[in-house]
Every structure is written in structure tokens, then in C-alpha cells.
Amino acid sequence: MATVPVTLADVEAAAANLDGVVRDLPLAGAQWLERLVGGEVRLVTENLQRAGSFKIRGAYNRISRLSPQERARGVVAASAGNHAQGVAVAAQLLGVHATVFMPEGATIPKVQATLGYGADVRFHGTTIDAALTAAREFADETGAVLIHPFDHDDVIAGQGTLGLEILAKMPEVRTIVVCLGGGGLLAGVSLAVKSRRPEVRVVGVQAAAAAAYPPSLAAGHPVALESMATMADGIAVGRPGDAPFAIISERVDEIVTVSEEQLSRAVLLLLERAKLVVEPAGAAAAAAVLADPSAFEPPVAVVLSGGNVDTLVLLRIIRYGLAAAGRYLTLAVRMQDRPGSLAGLLNDIQELHANVVDIEHNRVDAGLRVDEVDIVVHVETRGPEHCEALLASLTARGYQVLPGRFEPLPG
């Protein structure tokens, strides 16, 4: 195996450095996943970590190793939120001034939390990559030290301490599943795990709409994506970091991708079954296991990397997840526009044991006759089979159900 920029000794030193800084979190059980996988599954709850994600590990390890002269110049970072909070907390603990560049669309709770931890926040661009460019320019202009979110040896070593913890808490583990953006977490975990237990399978998971690693690994070097569009802003990174790429290309067994529907379903199930609030990026590993449970040999450790999500965004994700799981049905019924028509439709839906969430009337479509109306009904169901039964029953009762179903609620 070729030389990589970070060693196991670096990760072990980072673990000693982080002693008393990061929370010692127990692994959570997941019987609902175990039934699918056919064996033991444990959730690695970094969504409950200090500042709401694993990022405090790498940020603290990096800043703590700066010289007094470097600390005096302050630090600068770029992040959609989790790295921002990790840097802000680490800087606050170490008495260092922090400036953080965030994309314009960063969620309000992440911005407010970063400010609350004492950092100055500036907005630039619409992606992490654009914010990172601004942070580099700020570092050049002011002398502040750039704390890269993933492309630095000390950051990777800090993130790798999670791998040591997984091995210590789950010594029988056979598969570890980790979300993947720029690569700092996956690189650190895979380095630590493979150095001690090379037989353990390590799998990285990217959002399909922001997956830079598959084409980069195929090319043999980091390749930048032309565009990205995913709800998982925490792993929406357009180009892999050079340092993590070198490790991941050698140490990681497989990279898989998950769809937006699979991400939203994972967020929903983690909330319902595990009682854990997890952001889409943090749920990527769980989404992969849900999508293909037979592909992961138990015992399996599933890393939930972060839980910083805006409440309104979470509401939309939950609605989208319910629709993707077939538990929300949006149907349009064309009927006579006369008294009692709506009441009759709602009564029939109730008899079929579905719950009406919202109703819309459309009387202005060009295809409607003057005495017709389209009623759009958003219905909560028990799942896809219930949706099919509801549609079939309404059709059998003479309703003209228009095309289009399993649509997410507007939000």
C-alpha cells in the first residue's frame, strides 16, 4: 500500500488531543434496520456530538496545533454549517478569533449557532466551493489561517478518531458505512479502521446529485463536478480534496450513491424509529443501508454524521419522505360543481380509511366545462398498497381521477 499523508499515529495523537473535548456517545440500537440487514446494526450518533456533528473533531485538532503566532492572526473557514460550528466552538475553546464564510443559502439555525459560538459570519456564493474561494482570499489578505473543512492532515486525523471509537465500542464490527462529501471523515475513519482491522469493510455514501468521488476514482484524480443539486448540503462538495482522495482511493472498499427520495426516507425513519433528528447529509449512510440492506454484512456501524437542520427544511423533508414512501397521495378528481359533491368525495375517502390533509379547488382550467371543478386532495395513507386501493376504489365508485399521484405535498 502506498504512503498516505496521515498515519495511524496521527489519529491516535488526535484522540489524545480531543480527550475531554468531544462527547463520549453510546452507539444506538436499530432493530428496524437489523430486520432488513439480517444482523446487528448500530447507529453512530455524531448528530448528538458537540456542535451537532463530527466536525468539532477535525476543527479542534487543527486549531490546537497552531503556533501562538498563528493563533494570534485568527482563523478563517468556509462551510454550509457543520464545519462552521465546529470551527467556531474549537476557536472559542482555544481563545482564537474565527471568521466563517457561508453560502447564501445556509440554513438559519446553522448561521445563528455559528454566531452564538462567537464567530464572525460572512456570506459568499451559493455553494461550499464558492465560500471556500472567498475564505482563501480572506486568508491571503489578512493572514488568518485557513481551516479547511476536509483537505488537511490534521483535520483528517481528527475525524479519524471516530473510527477508533467505533472499533473500541463495537469490536465485532464487519462493515462501517460513512457519508461522503469532500472526504475528510471517510478518509480519517478508513485510515484508522483499516490500519487496525484491514478486514473490516468501509463504505462511503454520496448524494447521487452531488457525487464527485465516482468519476474522480474512475479518472484516478480529483475531478470537479459542473453542477450539484441536493438537499444534503453538508456533503454537497464539487471536488474531492487531494489529501482525503489519496486515502480513500486506497483504503475505502466501495462508494455508493443515494437518491433524494432515499435521503428523505432515511431522515423520516430515523426520526420515527430511532427518535433522532438527523440532517439529510448525516442520514446518507442510513439511506444506503435502507436502499440495499443485503449489501452490508453485519455487524454494521452506520454513521449519523450530523443533526443540524432547519425546522422548516425538516418539515419539507418529512413531507417529501412521506410522499416518496407512498404515505402521502396527491390526487385530482374532476366532478360536477354542485352542492354536496365535495362532501360526498370526502365521505368516500373517509370510508376508505384515508386521512385528508389539504384540499384545493380549480375552476379555471381551460379543459374544464363551466359546470365542472377539479378537486385536488392531499391524503395521508398507510403506504403504497393503501394508495393503490384508494385509487381503485374511487374509480370503481365512478369518480374521474386524473393522472398524477404519489406527489409530495407543496411546502
Describe this structure as you would to a colleague.
Helix 5 links the parallel strand 3 and strand 4. It is elongated and about 80 Å long. The longest helix is centred in the middle third of the chain and has 17 residues. Helix content is 43%, strand content 18%. The chain starts with 7 loop residues before the first helix and ends in a 10-residue tail after the last strand. The chain is built from 16 helices and 14 strands. With 411 residues, the protein is of the alpha/beta class. The C terminus is likely disordered.
Architecture blueprint of SSEs:
Layout: H1 8-17, E1 28-29, H2 31-37, E2 41-45, H3 55-64, H4 68-73, E3 75-78, H5 82-94, E4 98-102, H6 108-116, E5 120-123, H7 128-142, E6 145-146, H8 153-169, E7 175-179, H9 184-196, E8 201-207, H10 213-219, H11 242-251, E9 254-258, H12 260-273, H13 284-291, E10 300-304, H14 311-324, E11 328-336, H15 341-351, E12 355-362, E13 372-380, H16 384-396, E14 400-401
Q: Biggest β-sheet, characterized?
A: 6 strands, mixed
Care to count the β-strands?
14
Average pLDDT score: 91
Unreliable stretches (pLDDT < 50, length at least 5) are 405-411
Instruction: Report the span from N to C terminus.
Output: 50 Å
Q: Taking Cα atoms only, what radius of gyration do you get, to the nearest Å?
A: 24 Å
Strand content: 15-25%
Query: Helicity level, as a percent range?
Result: 40-55%
Number of helices: 16
- Structural category is alpha/beta
**Secondary-structure element series:** HEHEHHEHEHEHEHEHEHHEHHEHEHEEHE
